[in-house]
TrEMBL record:
This is Stress protein. It holds the Pfam family Dabb. PROSITE patterns: S_R_A_B_BARREL (PS51502). It comes from the Bacteria. InterPro entries: Dabb (IPR013097), Dimeric_a/b-barrel (IPR011008). Residues 2-101 form the Stress-response A/B barrel domain.
Length: 129
């Protein structure tokens, strides 16, 4: 199992409707067939709604590859990125003990970025840690 976690904050001034739209798009992305489990919502202890989280559980590397290239995921990125102030990846977790798993996951990310450079650039500009 690979657990992928994103923590993100909306741009200042984002309306409730904009926030809800982004969360709907994220939930749609998380409904991809290759996702075994998911949650999208406000971070715990964030009563003011400042930090939200997106977490998906994906069975294995093959499922992660399908998820990264799923039309729901590809279509969601450009709808989400312009509305966020920042995004942090991880910590991601996995139960696969293969020493090269992190490198293989990074290679999947780079493959998607090469196929969709505009979307990758939009997300890269938001990365914090």
């Amino acid at each position: 199992m690979i657990v992928h976690v994103l923590r993100f904050a909306f741009k200042e001034g984002a309306t409730g409707a904009v926030r809800e739209h982004v969360l709907v798009v994220m939930r749609r992305t998380a409904s991809a067939v290759s996702v075994a489990s998911a949650t999208v919502g406000r971070g715990l202890g964030e009563e003011d709604g400042g930090v939200h989280a997106y977490c998906v559980g994906i069975a294995d590397l093959d499922a992660l590859r399908r998820y990264r290239h799923d039309p729901l995921h590809v279509a969601g990125d450009p709808q989400i990125a312009p509305r966020l102030a920042e995004i942090a990846i991880g910590p991601d977790l996995f139960d696969d003990v293969a020493a090269d798993l992190a490198a293989r996951i990074l290679a999947l990310h780079e493959d998607k970025a090469a196929l969709h450079p505009h979307g990758a650039a939009g997300l890269a500009a938001l990365l914090t840690a």
